[in-house]
């Protein structure tokens, strides 16, 4: 059984994340989409809310499970029996940080491999921060977010400003 973890902050999950999650779910038997608890200092959505948002947008992917995790990613992956970490790569600017993280994880857990999936070009500009910026000024989010969660992001941003 091949088990993978797709880790991240997902604040909020974007169409770019969802594309990576779908493509990963087609390659592995079980995929844990795993949200780091206590990651960002001032997140827009709580970890519980982010778990709920991702569960809603992945409800048609039966081998995808959504959870929060704390501590080191490799320890969490071992708990789940996952031998693979999958991350999306958008541009060269992502590479340095992702490379460093994957080497650190390899140092800590030589038995776990990191796989990178290249973004769909359609989403290469996209990030959770960009989505929050566009939402703040009431821009069109229809190409950026899964349709089920657009209203949640608009409400949350509206409530904060
Ligand atoms: O969405 P992000 O911000 O790219 O996600 C980063 C994340 C959560 C994958 C990364 O920060 C992480 O794995 N944190 C857990 C702590 C850890 O294991 N650190 C060692 C690797 S540098």
Explain what the structure shows:
This protein is an alpha/beta fold and 161 residues long. It has six helices and five strands, in the order E-H-E-H-E-H-E-H-E-H-H. The protein has helices at residues 15-25, 47-57, 73-79, 92-108, 128-136, 150-160, and strands spanning 3-8, 30-36, 64-69, 84-89, 113-118. The chain has a five-stranded parallel beta sheet with strand order 3-2-1-4-5, sandwiched between helices. Helix 4 (92-108) links the parallel strand 4 (84-89) and strand 5 (113-118). The chain starts with a strand and ends with a helix. The mean pLDDT is 95. 4'-phosphopantetheine is lined by residues 7-9, 36, 39, 72-73, 101, 104-105.
Ligand types: 4'-phosphopantetheine
Count the beta strands.
5
Q: What is the molecular shape? A: globular
Strand percent estimate: 15-25%
Main sheet overview = 5 strands, parallel
Query: Helical element count?
Result: 6
Spatially, the strands of the biggest sheet line up as 3-2-1-4-5
As a whole number of angstroms, the C-alpha radius of gyration is: 15 Å
Oligomer: single chain
Task: State the separation between the terminal residues, measured CA to CA.
Answer: 46 Å
Structural class, by secondary structure, is: alpha/beta
> What number is the mean pLDDT?
95
Order of helices and strands: EHEHEHEHEHH
Low-confidence stretches: none
Fraction of residues in helices? Answer: 40-55%
């Amino acid at each position: 059984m091949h088990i993978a973890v797709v880790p991240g902050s997902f604040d909020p999950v974007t169409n770019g994340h969802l594309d990576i999650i779908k493509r990963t779910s087609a390659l592995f038997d079980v995929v844990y989409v795993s949200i780091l608890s206590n990651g960002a200092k001032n997140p827009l959505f709580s970890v519980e809310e982010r778990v709920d948002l991702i569960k809603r947008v992945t409800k048609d992917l039966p081998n995808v499970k959504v959870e929060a995790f704390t501590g080191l990613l490799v320890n969490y992956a071992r708990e789940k029996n996952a031998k693979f970490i999958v991350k999306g790569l958008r541009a060269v600017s992502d590479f340095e940080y992702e490379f460093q993280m994957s080497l650190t994880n390899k140092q800590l857990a030589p038995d776990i491999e990191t796989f990178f999936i290249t973004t769909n070009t359609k989403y290469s500009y996209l990030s959770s921060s960009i989505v929050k910026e566009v939402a703040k000024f009431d821009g069109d989010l229809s190409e950026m977010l899964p349709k089920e969660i657009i209203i949640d992001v608009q409400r949350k941003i509206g409530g904060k400003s």
